[in-house]
Write a structure and sequence with these properties.
Length: about 550
């Protein structure tokens, strides 16, 4: 018989267990805690936790423990349970009331059996076979349905062999054992249901994020993997920092909740790009809008060439049939020189349009000279420059393919990201998502955008994402305006960014020292991009 002190102690355990269950996020660990707690408060030697499958037709083994046999399966053990699920109905559709666990689930009732070998009305042949194989003696059974807040059975908790805490003898489960187990099963069912609901909401939320990212990716085939790669690299670097035991970042640690928050921020870091015009995102050449307007310039130059050829013929005709060979040769030479010049200028504009190399002052001046040198006549008979002012502006972009106005449009995506994320009613464990996601274009020296934050004004997580965003862009193989960089090239540029105050120096050190770049490269880069890296040649890094 239970003593009052023992009962009070077990009630205290039940309260502590209820609190622990409500805080557990991992479902496998939660199921394990439920069974172990039930075994503890009832002094059971063994136990099994079943869950009803999605179809509602079977009881699926989730956790199995037998202390005296050293058996531990399911849950967080990594050892799978090989037993087949228990059917809740027979082949003819009738309820399976001969198996005690199925009976408890179907009837929603607790079953307390003193001795399985003497029990009537239930089939314990499987239990006897298990005992024959192992030398165990299954005696007392306490089988409790797990019902959620709606009264639906979601699983079954089965405890085996009540062990006397002093003598060690196997006896029956007492009335207090039953009450405590039923109370625990009720708490556990609610905790499990809540965890499942939270998991479903998280899955729905992440699916919605994926939907947004897919919409961004479909806008631009050139940055299609960016929204997936940056979060992955962010988590790789964050985990490396979390594992760092010395140096200025030794105090940085992450809980599972911290990891989830950073993961969500990474997935949403470019959500504002849904507002960015696709022709700016995809601008592969300086003259590209809906199409590459170099073709229009080619057409104008063809008209100018035609005019030169006609002018040459007209000059020959004006010279007359009696013109000397020297005069005719001079006319032809002049026409040929102008045709050569226009072909060279057109070739130069094609090269300038690519935007992959930095333009010199001389190149910029030549674009302006070409605009003034060549003129064409439109269909209305009006004479025009071969290049419009807007085309000159684009062709004289010093580096890349974007004008200042277009770069502002691109940069505005981070403003949109921050506005969108700050407008959401984030739960407490995700309140930092806007700050983490919105800081990946800031610089350590305060010269970044959109807020001009300095290093000490930013979280480690935001600084981590900044490095991930840059390195992904440097090594990406799907950009139309550049070739994919090799590792050594990307790390050299990243090192310069470290020296000029662009990225966090301590995080850069971890990124290189712990070879985060190589782990990422082996997953996402082409083999030809993964070259040998001489650490001593990386700017700002001390091997």
């Amino acid at each position: 018989m239970d003593t009052l002190d023992d009962l009070l102690r077990r009630l205290e355990q039940l309260n502590e267990i209820g609190s622990a269950l409500s805080n557990e996020r991992n479902i496998d660990a939660l199921l394990e805690k439920i069974l172990l707690a039930a075994k503890t408060i009832t002094h059971a030697d063994g136990g099994t936790l079943y869950r009803i499958d999605e179809a509602g037709e079977h009881l699926r083994f989730e956790i199995l423990r037998t202390d005296s046999l050293g058996i531990a399966m399911g849950g967080t053990t990594g050892t799978p349970i090989a037993f087949p699920p228990l059917p809740l109905h027979l082949e003819d559709g009738s309820p399976n009331l001969s198996m005690v666990a199925a009976y408890s689930a179907l009837k929603g009732q607790t079953v307390n059996i003193a001795d399985a070998y003497r029990a009537e009305g239930f089939d314990f042949s499987g239990t006897r076979a298990f005992d024959a194989r192992t030398g165990y003696r299954s005696t007392s059974f306490l089988t409790v349905p797990m019902m959620n807040h709606e009264g639906a059975v979601i699983g079954v908790l089965q405890l085996i062999n009540a062990v006397h805490p002093v003598t060690g003898a196997v006896g029956i489960f007492s009335g207090s054992d039953r009450q405590l187990a039923e109370s625990l099963a009720s708490q556990a069912a609610i905790a499990l249901t809540n965890r499942q609901l939270v998991s479903q909401l998280e899955a729905l939320f992440e699916s919605f994020i994926t939907l947004i990212n897919n919409a961004i990716d479909e806008k631009s085939p050139y940055t299609g993997g960016h929204c997936q790669r940056v979060p992955t690299l962010t988590m790789m670097l964050a985990e490396a920092v979390n594992d760092t035991q010395d140096g200025p970042l030794a105090g940085f640690t992450m809980t599972e909740a911290d990891r989830y928050e950073l993961k969500i921020a990474g997935l949403l870091h470019d959500c504002g790009k849904v507002t960015t015009p696709v022709h700016v995102v995809d601008k592969a050449t300086k003259l590209q809008t809906i199409f590459d307007r170099i073709e229009l310039i080619d057409t104008r130059f063809e008209l100018i060439r035609r005019d030169i050829e006609l002018a040459t013929l007209n000059s020959r005709f004006a010279a007359g049939l009696n013109a000397s060979p020297a005069v005719l040769a001079q006319i032809e030479r002049h026409g040929a020189d102008r045709l050569r010049d226009i072909d060279e200028d057109r070739a130069f504009l094609h090269h300038a349009n690519i935007g992959s190399e930095r333009m010199s002052d001389a190149d910029v001046e030549r674009v302006h000279a070409i605009a003034h040198r060549w003129r064409w006549t439109d269909s209305q008979g009006s004479e025009r420059s071969c290049l419009s002012e807007e085309e000159v502006e684009n062709l004289t972009i010093r580096a890349g393919t974007l004008t200042g106005a277009e770069r502002e449009i691109i940069n505005y995506h981070i403003v949109s990201t921050i506005r969108m994320l700050e407008a959401l009613p984030w739960p407490r464990h995700l309140t930092n998502v806007p700050e983490y996601a919105g800081g990946h274009h800031e610089r350590m020296d305060g010269k970044g955008y959109p807020r001009g934050l300095a290093r000490d004004q930013m979280s480690v997580q935001a600084r981590v994402m900044g490095i991930a965003d840059i390195f992904e862009a440097l090594t990406a193989k799907d950009r139309p305006y550049k070739r994919p960089m090799r590792l050594s090239e990307a790390l050299h540029i990243l090192g310069k960014f470290r020296l000029n105050g662009h990225i966090d120096p301590d995080l850069f050190d971890v990124f290189v020292r712990r070879q985060v770049y190589l782990k990422y490269a082996e997953t996402f880069l082409d083999p030809e991009q993964i070259d040998d890296v001489d650490l001593s040649s990386i700017p700002g890094f001390q091997p």
